[in-house]
Every structure is written in C-alpha cells, then in structure tokens.
Amino acid sequence: MTEQLSAGLELEHLEALLDSIRAATRARLSSESSIRGLAPAALVVGAGAGDVTYGIDLESEEVVTSWFEERARAGALSLFTEDMGWRHAGPTSDGWEELPGFDHGGPRIAIDPIDGTRPLLGDLRSAWTSIAACPPGPGEPRASDVSVGLLGELPTSSTEAWRVIRAQRGHGATIQRLSSAPAQRLSEQPLIADADDRADHGVFSFFRFSPWQRPQIAAVEADFLARIEAAEGADLMHCYDDQYVCNVGQLVHLALGAYRLIADLRGHMMEPGGESPVTSKPYDLAAALLVAREAGCVVTAPDGEALDFPLDAETPVSFIGWTNEPTARRLAPHLKAALS
Questions:
Q1: 221 exposure class (CB count in 10 Å sphere: 0-12, 13-18, 19+)
Q2: Higher confidence at residue 44 or residue 321?
Q3: Predicted local confidence at residue 32, as pLDDT
Q4: CA distance linking residue 26 with residue 23, whole number of Å
C-alpha cells in the first residue's frame, strides 16, 4: 500500500511511525524487564486530554511529537493524541508553524500510541498502536471520515513476533506477521471474518471495566446467555468470557473470529446522577472500527443503529460487535431483548 493521503504524506510514513513507536516501547520494556512491582514505566506521571499517562507513554509521545514536526515541514496536517488533543501545523520557508485549525488542505490523523497499557505493563497481553487517517476537511473528523486504519501490535517481553493490520475504506483489510529474530516478514494475507453463525464455542465478551457497573452488565450477559441457550441450543459451557483491557485488541479478536461478540455497554448503561464510568475513547476505536468493518464484522451502537462519533477525547462511546453478518442476524435479537 502506498496510498497518497495528501501532499507530502503517504501511507508508508504512517507505517514508519508504527515501527518507531514499537521500537521505543520495546526498548523501554526491555530496559526494565528485571524490575518487579511498580517499575518506572508503570508509574503514573500525569493525565492527558484523554487518559492517564504512565511512564511507558513518555517515549512514544516523544516519537509522535518528533514525527509530527517532521511531517509538518513537508505538508499541512492535523494530529490528535490523548496527551495533547488536536494540533495543526504546516510548512514555512525554513521549518514549520502551528496553524489555527483544520481548514488547511491536509490530512486529519488520530493516534493512540499505546492502547492496552495496563495489561502490557503487567507483561500479560499485547498492547496496540492505533492510527486513524482521515482526508482533508474543514473541521473535526468523525469515525465515518476515517479512510485508512493502521494497527501495530506491541507484544509482551517474551514475544519476538508482532502483527500489523491495515485497512482502507472499501478495499478490505490485511494482516501481516513480522519477526525481529531475525528481522523478516513471516506472513501476509487478507483479514476476512469467517461466515460461521455458531452460538457457542467462542468468546462472548461483555466488557466490565468499571467495578460499580459489573452487576448490571453481568445481569444483561446472563439474560442474553439464557436466551441463546433456550432459543438457539447454545452450550453455555462453551460460551467463554474474556476481559481484554484494550479496545483495539477486542476488535482484532472479533475480526480473527476468536470473539463472536464484544459488548461494551459502559456508556449506554450510565445511570443519571450516578458515578460516571470510564468508557471507550473515540481515538482508541476509530482505526480498529474501520479494520473490523472492512474484515466483515458488524459493529453498531447498542441499540443496533449506526455507530459514529467525533474523534475527540470526551465523547463516551458504547458499541456492540459481532464477528460477521450471519452471527449478528442470528443472535442480535436476543441481545436486544436482554437490553430491553
């Protein structure tokens, strides 16, 4: 893929950014691999526009800032990060300068350098870098504006291989597996969701991050499972649960078929006047949403309507994802009944 996103910016520039973030994160984890407990990488060092900032985030933020300033010398662009929000910049005769807004004719890009920080810091599961690229426009983009999605795996310390997933709107998705021992591309193929509509033998995940919401979400889960057992003959001993604290990882699992359902209902089930839950962030979801849809998954709002949202740091997002259209057609009515 060498798609021209705008003057001075091609897809290969975004892929180089993925590689740089992975290398910086890997180096930080390796340097602290012998430390137990709250190593410096795991310490909270601040709060950005979208989430808590850990020590491990600092290197990746520096990589992104350097990349942004370099690309601004070649052409105008807007960049969203969770620590800084939206920034706009473009070239001058001897460097670059900040611009007042989006209406500059360049691409609008939202990036989360590390989604899944908490499990990665525990060396439990991979985190992911997420880059969502939108064409030029006069204002803040929405998820429906994303034309290119790039996902780069940040593997645990004992893993020498990682995956890079690419999607272009209307052109499908691909998954590539790479290795650093030795450096080589191990495989590359289209990422296409399966067509099986089975009601069991897979993960049906109701994400329960906020402690005070767990009973309500678990009640919806139990109702849904009872309904598919009664109506679809599901063997509930083979309807598994998973709590992957990483939106990108959740949607990757959905596209790969390991997740048959991912339901993130946190924002949807907010109680008026109650404690506000931590919800999915738009910048986490944007690129992975395009990947999942281009792979053939069905991802909607909890009420079944189209899922769209502004790419910002504040909008609470809830979603339901099905691994494919046949599964959504068979099982979504049971989830809708459970939610009602």
A1: buried
A2: 321
A3: 64
A4: 5
CA-to-CA distance for 41 and 114, rounded, in angstroms?
A: 13
- The per-residue pLDDT of the chain, averaged, comes to 90
Measured torsion, CA atoms of residues 169, 171, 172, 173, in degrees rounded to the nearest 10: -80
Give 126's contacts (C-beta < 8 A, 6+ positions apart). 116, 119, 120, 153, 154, 155, 156, 159, 162, 246, 249
CA dist list (Å): 290 to 125, 165, 225, 236, 296? 23, 11, 28, 31, 10
Residue 140 three-state SS:
coil
Distance CA 65, CA 68 (A): 5
Region label for 267, one of left (φ > 0), alpha (ψ between -120 and 50) or beta (otherwise)? alpha
Alpha helices in 73-182 (DSSP H): 117-121
Q: What's the pLDDT score for residue 83?
A: 85
Helix (H) or strand (E) holding 58: helix 55-72
Taking the C-alpha atoms of residue 32 and residue 260, their distance in angstroms, rounded to an integer, is 36
Place of tokens 């310390």: 157
Q: Which amino acid is at 161?
A: A
Give residue-wise pLDDT tens across range 255-302: 999 999 999 999 998 876 667 778 999 999 999 999 999 999 999 999
CA-based end-to-end distance of the chain: 44
Q: DSSP 3-state assignment of 121?
A: helix
Q: Would you tell me how many other CB atoms lie within 10 Å of the CB of residue 188?
A: 12
* Residue pLDDT, tens place only, 51-72: 655 667 788 889 999 999 999 9
